[in-house]
Design goal:
Two copies of one chain form a homodimer. By secondary structure, the first copy, chain A, is an alpha+beta fold. Chain A has helices spanning 5-21, 24-28, 49-57; strands at residues 31-38, 46-47, 63-74, 77-88, 91-95, 98-103, 109-115, 121-123. The first copy, chain A, has one domain: Nuclear Transport Factor 2, Chain: A. In chain A, strands 1, 2, 3, 4, 5, 6, 7 and 8 form an eight-stranded mixed sheet that branches. Chain A binds chain B through residues 5, 38, 40-43, 70, 72-79, 81, 96-98, 100, 114-117, 120, and chain B through 5, 38, 40-43, 70, 72-79, 81, 96-98, 100, 114-117, 120. Chains A, B: It comes from Nocardioides endophyticus. Chains A, B: Pfam families: SnoaL_2. Chains A, B: Residues 12-110 form the SnoaL-like domain.
């Protein structure tokens, strides 16, 4: 049985909150042990908790906030548009990817693919 | 070589314009001969021009308009959020899916997957 829409919505909310203010370990706990992350789509795929932790560890310690713009859940999968705003010095970096996620029966993320390109980063 | 970002952006523009005011044949011409359409995600996958034409033929003759909300192109693929507004009698049906598309080297669509659920249709 696929993860329920309610469960998927909860994971998306948790994911966006934790990318904004959580630790890499907390984010990794949302993923299956053999999950894959492709961020951005077209880059090397990271497989498993250690590689995924390394990816999110790069975000730790940055001053940032996140918010969900919109999501669509269908067939046990989700795509969602969200925004991550990072401040460094006197600059603000705003990136708003559309992420696609799949899940296993127990309700953890099995694949995450983030769609964004260089042109989607706004610096102000 | 994957389809270029420019070419993909052009296909998305054409697709949204033709879903709004084109014929099923014009839309089908954007697809590869053995392309697949899963709309919504989780429903039966339609394979090939005949099955895809049948799907879009159901939209012909409806009074409707479409607009692109936002798109993200990465790694030769695209996800895009758009809106389709259909009027029937005194009712307006607004659906805003997020579609995911892949392409072949010649720049035609090989897969289309539309993410939306019943809760994403607004009737006014």
């Amino acid at each position: 049985m696929a993860a329920s829409a309610d469960r998927i919505g909860q994971i998306v909310d948790d994911y966006i909150r934790l990318v904004g203010s959580g630790t890499a370990d907390e984010i990794v706990a949302l993923y299956a042990a053999d999950a894959t992350v492709e961020d951005p789509v077209g880059s090397d795929v990271r497989t498993g908790h250690a590689a995924i932790r390394e990816f999110y560890a790069g975000l730790e310690g940055l001053e940032k906030e996140t918010r969900l713009i919109t999501s669509r859940i269908a067939g046990g999968e989700v795509v969602f548009h969200f925004e991550i705003i990072t401040r460094a010095g006197d600059k603000t970096y705003t990136l708003s990817p559309i992420d696609a996620m799949t899940f296993d029966d127990s309700g953890v993320i099995t694949t995450m693919r983030a769609f964004w390109g260089d042109g989607d980063m706004v610096i102000s």
